[in-house]
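User: I'll paste a sequence; please echo it back and then give the predicted structure.

Assistant: Echoing your sequence first, then the prediction.
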Amino acid sequence: MKTLTLVLALAMAPVWAQKLDFNFDNLAAKAKEKAEIDIQPDQIEKMAGDLHLPIGAVSSVVLRHYEFDQPGQFSDADLAKLRKQAADGGWTRFLNVKEKNESTEIYSLSQGGKPAGFLLIAAEAKELTVAYVMGSISVAQLQTVVASTIQYDMKGLEK
């Protein structure tokens, strides 16, 4: 769960860009617990004030978080398609940490010298989290979001 908290904090990083494919139905079917969040532009607009974001700063957020009963229920091969899309789309991996039973990768995309995409892939033995954000937000705005202790009511987003 610590990964999910980190992802949500980082999910507001600088971005707007190419849409990646997040179809992980095969992993979702094996997971004992899952969280799949897709926040679209109209929903972001409703949340912008609570998240201290200017309207239009972030246009889309995708989060996939899966928890499994035992290690080995997913592998690097399950993420190969996503990594290839990122590489082929001009994304740059600027963080790659591999430890025993854990790895974290962070990719960014720039357009016109400005941040345009953020992708995080964090894997532990029994957990996998992927976060993707499109939009643009300054580091100062990111600090405001992270520093706040917002607990936004997501129920209203279903409508």
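Residues 2-10 form the longest helix (9 residues). Confidence is low (pLDDT under 50) at residues 4-17, 148-155.
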